[in-house]
Fold this protein.
Amino acid sequence: MDFCAVLMKRTVFYIVLALVLVSVVSCLKDSETEKTPQAAITSFVVGYYNVKYQDIDQQGNDSITYYRSGGILFPMTIDQINNRIYNIDSLDYGSDVHAVTTSVGGIGSVFYYYQDNPYMLYYWSGYDSIDFTPGRGVIFKVVSSDGSYQRDYKVQLNVRTVFPDSLLWSQADSIGFTALKKPCAVISNDIVYNIGYDNTDVLCMTSRNISQGVWSDPVALSGIPAAGWGGTVVSSGGKLYSLFGTSIYSSSDGKVWSSCKDDVKCLVKTESESDVAWAVTSDSIIRLTDLEKWTPVSKVPDGFPDSVAIAFDYPLVTNTSVTRTVLIGEGKDSVSVWTNLSTDNDWVQIDAPSNASLRLPSLKNLSVIRYDGSIFAFGTGLKGFHQSEDNGITWHWCSPYVKNYETSWNRYMQLPKPLKGYNGDFSYVVDRLGSIWIMTSDGQVWRGAVTRLDKRVR
């Protein structure tokens, strides 16, 4: 083939290729400008906004600081059936959403207006700051390119109304409660039992479900001695146990009791995940087994509490098959902390910190709870909590100002103000719904929960 023929074929090829490209570009342009009757929002992202944060300085003065957060951390749900756009996970408490930018994707032209002024329609732009203040009511309107169809979406930015680590208290669960003297409370099968003396000095029991109902009328306990109640009640295996004199009595309903173990000096108040109960005799530490028998597990070590003791059982984080027991009690001279592992029967006393400010002080009516991974102690006067985050080794007062605040939330672990300074008797429990109960001998019932731990149905 000569050179001219080859040149002619190549020229024809390039001409055809150019014509094809022009045709494709033309089709694309026609597609882009084609008008359709469709209108929808298919993506919605919130931009950056400020979050107001209340802090307290070393002098105890309130201060307000701000930090930036982005809505991309809180995905928006688009409900195409009900024409709603909202965030399932609420924005942080203190989020300022009165001027927020948005990124919107979809089909058609996008506008927006506020429910309180539907006649003022704004053309949407990613540079616009929109007021999403709760209750304002923002509506996004999408109009199809051919103008034949329009669609309104109600857009709602949910913002937390309380700080997630706030311990909020109420007295809503006090209906029907009868004040009892020298009370002690325990939970069994989701029932709060409160036992104490009525105004005629008869030992009585009143109860209520943790999720619903009111307090029952007081019922006198039967099958017990006339005197000698030790003021402690524990739950294990669906039964209640209490100490009268030197004998442990058991009950299935909190009303009728019978003796099951003698020669006991101390019944340990337990809040246990493993449903274990402990007691102390003159020479042994005993544990309640599944067969409802109290079995000696070790000798009583020197300095072990012999009057008031509170224990917690929970699995180790590193090995859930092993259970740790932390026991806190009053000895002859001071409060002591002891520990035991389920793999070893021996009890070991935890050395008190050399820094006296890190020790748990002696508290009248020593009361201890395990809550949100920490141990909290309080006592008569109900001034506040002492917190331990290391299984009782060191303790810190939950004051409004805490060093290294950014890693701690315990300044929110505060007792209700009306209770602070209360010097009467009280009882307490922690339920599986995340609530702390405090019942006083003058008839008050307070129930509180850290917001993010509250599992109650509202």
